[in-house]
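Dear H.,

Thanks for agreeing to be a second pair of eyes. The structure we're designing against is below in token form, covering all 639 positions.
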């Protein structure tokens, strides 16, 4: 029979496996047992609604057998099995789950060996220890079996085979020992036993192996009293060697955090320890156990369509759904983990699950737990939380702007404090507000460096008030959606009135405004459509002018909509901020403007243009006509 070729990336991986000098090659056993367990999960799930399976829950098992003479190690399961086509697609290409990540790392050769240890790469790991692998499988519902055989990178064959019952046998013919390598150890009961214990103890299906035991039996020899002598005799007995308690069902004191972290890394393909581990054990209307993980970094596909959010859902230890998205609100879609409840009815269809009341109760509970754990992390391990926030802060922000579901998430936000020069929470901001400070001040812009020089914030800085610098596109929408924090309203340094004036000062300012009505109207006329109004500023100290806005759309939003428009086309032209030019009445430029207004209107108009240009520049908004502006500067600076 002609050999078929592996897909090219599988081939590279195989070569790596075959030639691996990796010391943790023992993980192949974990990988194969985990595949067997998944296959049983699948058939068990089918058996809930299909009587024809003919197996009870207790009938499912994984067997580990050896044949020392032929150097064979065999892992068998009575799970769902594979058809010839499935053998081809499943074993002809590298494990999908790890493949992308693996490919990324393949470009950094020094790292590649470690990947095997961290993720496991599934079935292929068998080639680390075997010179030939044969898979005999019969799929559930099929009358015939097939055999897949391969000796490694040069390809594989598939042909019909005999097998009495559903399931899969993985037969590994071990490599010959070399001077440095002892492959025979994988035929030893002791080694296999301890590897199962080490890596697969929590697999919930029984892993059965022949175990050698000793017992005392009567011999034919008689002792001095004429009784038959008792002697020790070895015998073997099939025994379940794993403890079968899923890790999330184990009491906390028996499973330390390191074990959970290890479980997380293997199961969810992450290099890093999780930022937090959450155990939930709930009794009540719905009883369930959950083990949840907050990753410390976003997985490589997190912001792509490839990423599948959701928790694994088990009902009494049987996997019902691999990614149950209904268990997590959108804003916590980064959470990984497992939920296991005996109260969910087993033969519920996947579609019905969506409307399940019990599921909703679990989801609510999970959401609360995650929220409180994040709060704890924020309060107790700032550094870890910062790391988490860098990856997932944006997710929380989307949660807030997308509606009522995100309510209460504002406690978890961090913003850059201009005073502390680091990220702080809103609670910290409010806590450090001087008593007389009424608002939470913020400024939106591209970078903290730019924002720190804003003319509008001079007075606040003088007063020693902190200003939050918001540099994410979405931040301004977030602040609006939050509205108030601990009864304090937000105020934009750039766009709004800072609310610093006393009543008397207000009156005085209003009077000043009236006194200068003519000149301000003149400026508005000179600048035409460019601005909606000109007025005197209440926040400038040493700068001559600044740009503010009126109405709902701020400069930052305008910028944001423009960037979307550049990407997507359409829409955003109406999304223009109404600009207001504010003057510092105490600045010499205003005196000059006034004087020109009385004596030389043309010059006054040019001054207005010049000051408007400055205001744009300081706000980080591009000049509408840079050449004209340069001309004006030249005219006044060098004449
Ligand atoms: P992964 O388990 O990460 O998907 P593997 O390379 O280990 O990758 O396995 C590839 C696929 O082959 C599995 O997803 C599964 O569909 C199938 N498979 C492997 N082992 C078995 C088995 N014992 N019984 C049934 N199907 C199996």
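And this is the sequence the design step returned. I haven't edited it by hand at all.
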């Amino acid at each position: 029979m002609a050999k078929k070729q592996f897909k090219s990336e599988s081939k590279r991986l195989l070569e790596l496996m075959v030639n691996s000098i990796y010391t943790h090659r023992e993980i192949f056993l974990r990988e194969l047992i985990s595949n067997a367990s998944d296959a049983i999960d699948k058939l068990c799930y089918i058996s809930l609604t299909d009587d024809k399976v003919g197996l009870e829950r207790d009938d499912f098992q994984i067997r580990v057998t050896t044949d020392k003479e032929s150097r064979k190690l065999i892992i068998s399961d009575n799970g769902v099995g594979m058809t010839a086509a499935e053998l081809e697609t499943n074993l002809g290409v590298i494990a999908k789950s790890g493949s992308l990540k693996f490919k990324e790392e393949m470009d950094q050769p020094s790292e590649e060996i470690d990947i095997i240890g961290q993720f496991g790469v599934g079935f292929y790991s068998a080639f680390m220890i075997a010179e030939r692998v044969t898979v005999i499988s019969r799929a559930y519902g099929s009358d015939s079996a097939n055999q897949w055989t391969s000796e490694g990178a040069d390809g594989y064959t598939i042909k019909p085979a005999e097998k009495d019952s559903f399931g899969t046998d993985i037969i590994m013919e071990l490599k010959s020992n070399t001077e440095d390598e002892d492959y025979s150890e994988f035929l030893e009961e002791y080694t296999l036993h301890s590897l199962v214990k080490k890596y697969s103890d929590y697999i919930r299906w029984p892993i059965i192996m022949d175990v050698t035991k000793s017992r005392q039996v009567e011999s034919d020899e008689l002792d001095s009293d004429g009784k038959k002598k008792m002697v020790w005799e070895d015998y073997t007995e099939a025994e379940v060697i794993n403890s079968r308690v899923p890790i999330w069902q184990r009491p906390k004191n028996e499973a330390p955090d390191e074990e959970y972290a290890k479980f997380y890394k293997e199961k969810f393909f992450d290099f890093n320890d999780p930022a937090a581990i959450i155990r939930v054990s709930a009794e009540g209307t719905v009883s369930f156990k959950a083990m949840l993980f907050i990753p410390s970094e976003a997985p490589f596909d997190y912001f792509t369509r490839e990423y599948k959010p959701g928790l694994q859902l088990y009902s009494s230890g049987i996997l019902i759904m691999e990614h149950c998205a209904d268990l997590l609100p959108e804003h916590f879609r980064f959470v990984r983990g497992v939920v296991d409840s005996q109260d969910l009815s087993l033969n519920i269809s996947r579609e019905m699950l969506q409307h399940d009341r019990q599921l909703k109760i679990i989801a609510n509970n999970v959401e609360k737990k995650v929220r409180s754990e994040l709060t704890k992390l924020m309060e107790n391990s700032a550094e870890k939380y910062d790391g988490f926030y860098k990856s997932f802060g944006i997710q929380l922000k989307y949660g807030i702007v997308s509606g009522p579901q995100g309510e209460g998430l504002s406690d978890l936000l961090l913003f850059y404090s201009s005073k502390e020069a680091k990220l702080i929470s809103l609670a910290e901001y409010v806590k450090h507000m001087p008593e007389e400070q009424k608002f939470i001040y913020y400024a939106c812009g591209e970078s903290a460096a730019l924002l720190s020089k804003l003319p509008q914030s001079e007075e606040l800085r003088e007063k020693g008030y902190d200003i939050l610098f918001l540099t994410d596109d979405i931040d301004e929408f977030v602040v609006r959606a939050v509205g108030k924090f601990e009864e304090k309203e937000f105020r934009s340094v750039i766009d709004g009135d800072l609310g610093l004036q006393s009543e008397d000062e207000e009156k005085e300012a209003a009077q000043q405004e009236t006194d200068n009505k003519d000149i301000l109207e003149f400026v508005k006329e000179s600048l035409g459509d460019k601005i909606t109004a000109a007025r005197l500023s209440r926040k400038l100290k040493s700068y001559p002018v600044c740009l503010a806005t009126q109405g709902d759309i701020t400069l930052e939003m305008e910028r944001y909509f423009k960037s979307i428009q550049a990407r997507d086309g359409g829409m955003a032209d109406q999304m223009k901020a109404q600009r207001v030019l504010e003057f510092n009445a105490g600045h010499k430029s205003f005196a000059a403007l006034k004087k020109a207004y009385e004596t030389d209107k043309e010059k006054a108009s040019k001054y207005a243009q010049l000051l408007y240009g400055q205001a744009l520049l300081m706000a980080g908004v591009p000049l509408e006509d840079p050449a004209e502006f340069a001309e004006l500067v030249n005219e006044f600076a060098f004449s």
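Two observations from my side: The longest helix spans residues 357-380. Residues 221 and 459 are 106 Å apart (CA to CA).

Warmly,
E.
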